[in-house]
Write a structure and sequence with these properties.
Order of helices and strands: HHEHEHEHEHEEEHHHEEHEEH
Largest sheet: 7 strands, mixed
Shape: globular
CATH class of the largest domain: Alpha Beta
Number of domains: 2
Number of strands: 11
CATH superfamily of the largest domain: Type I PLP-dependent aspartate aminotransferase-like (Major domain)
Number of helices: 11
Bound molecules: pyridoxal-5'-phosphate
Radius of gyration: 22 Å
Helix content: 25-40%
Strand order of the largest sheet: 1-7-6-5-4-2-3
CATH topology of the largest domain: Aspartate Aminotransferase, domain 2
Strand content: 5-15%
Length: 351
């Protein structure tokens, strides 16, 4: 299928002349910077925080390119994936005219971001096994459908979507397919990053907020064709990744081994904790998980949520969400936190 990106970019974005930052307007070596109205004397903190950060985050992209085995020109960095999500709406969806497809129950930001941008949402709910309803997706897509949002492994259900279903969407939908892989490091499924060469309409989102343990630094990643990355670069605020984040992320990216150890441990603890929940008398189902959390269907879910809160333990109450009624979403904690959760559940049954 021929994919013509030009027909998917909003006309105002296509003709947009992006902001040219002070640091972009010179080339060559310089040691005296009097071009950006910074405070030349310094700052109350470390000396270099008086300077604007690299708007292109080249050092980080170089390291990520090695880790992800993809060219740096295929990487966009956002202030969290949430910024990438918003930029995709702003780049490709005409407010009041275009629409996108989401597959609930799924990550809430797709719908919020659509609403902020006045873009219509069309819903193709997941099937009973939390897989894609391909026939429904097909009936929803029309000429104004610019994006389809897929989340795999999916939040809040925890499962990975079938690879062949995702490929079916990629091969048949004429717009952009976004695969949010926030939890991919915990999954047995392979990332779609390596398929970018085959699919010019593919955007893969990942984040340092989950497996990398850096939710506080706010760094999200989009992987896509050079053409799509170019559009996002044009639309983003020039200095969207701050200096402190860039420095700390650069250090963290040297610790792939440590992160892989944490992933293994979290997955083991998830499976153990899920087994404990499976054995509880009022649990109807613990859904299989490819993430660092799991979804549990349990009688009196809302009451248990409140009971746990009374013990200082907060889980995610999803008991009123369609298709996952009576469900709680539980993030894997530390060994000690998991033990305390199990003890609190024993108290629930004994009261
Ligand atoms: C947690 C999460 C994110 C992460 O967003 P950040 O802005 O990068 O912290 C993205 N997508 C999904 C589905 C998530 O659950």
């Amino acid at each position: 299928m021929a994919f013509d990106l030009d027909t998917f970019v909003r006309p105002n974005i296509k003709k947009l002349i992006p902001y040219s930052s002070a640091r972009d307007e010179f080339s060559g070596e310089a040691k005296i910077f009097l071009d950006a109205n910074e405070n030349s004397l310094g700052s109350p903190l470390l000396k270099w925080y008086n300077r604007y950060p690299d708007p292109h985050q080249l050092a980080i992209k170089k390291k990520l390119a090695v880790i992800k085995s993809i060219g740096a020109e295929h990487i966009f960095l956002g202030n969290g994936s949430d910024e990438c999500i918003d930029l995709l709406f702003r780049s490709f969806c005409e407010p009041g005219k275009d629409n996108v497809i989401i597959c609930p129950p799924t990550y809430g930001m797709y719908e919020v971001s659509a609403n902020i941008n006045d873009v219509a949402i069309r819903k193709a709910p997941l099937l009973d096994d939390f897989q894609l309803n391909l026939a429904h997706i097909e009936t929803l897509a029309d000429a104004n459908t610019k994006l389809i949002w897929l989340c795999s492994p999916n939040n809040p259900t925890g499962n990975a979507l079938n690879r062949s279903d995702i490929e079916m969407v990629l091969n048949n939908f004429e717009g952009i397919v976004v695969i949010d892989e926030a939890y991919i490091n915990f999954s047995k499924q392979k990332s779609f990053i390596q398929e970018l060469a085959d699919y010019p309409n593919l955007v893969v989102l990942q984040t340092l907020s989950k497996a990398w343990g850096l939710a506080g630094l706010r760094l999200g990643m989009a992987f896509a064709s050079e053409a799509i990355i170019g559009i996002l670069d044009k639309v983003k605020p020039p200095y969207n990744i701050n200096q402190a984040t860039q420095e700390l992320v650069l250090k963290a990216l040297d610790e792939v081994g440590q992160v892989n150890d944490m992933i293994r441990l979290l997955v083991d603890m998830r499976d153990a904790l899920a087994d404990v929940f499976r054995s509880m008398p009022t649990v109807e189902k613990v859904y299989p998980s490819d993430a660092n959390f799991f979804l549990v269907k349990i009688r009196e879910a809302r009451k248990i949520y409140e009971f746990l809160l009374g013990k200082g333990i907060v889980v995610r109450d999803r008991s009123h969400v369609k298709l996952i009624e009576d469900c709680l979403r539980i993030t894997v904690g530390t060994e000690q936190e998991n033990t305390q959760l199990v003890e609190a559940m024993q108290q629930w049954y004994e009261q």
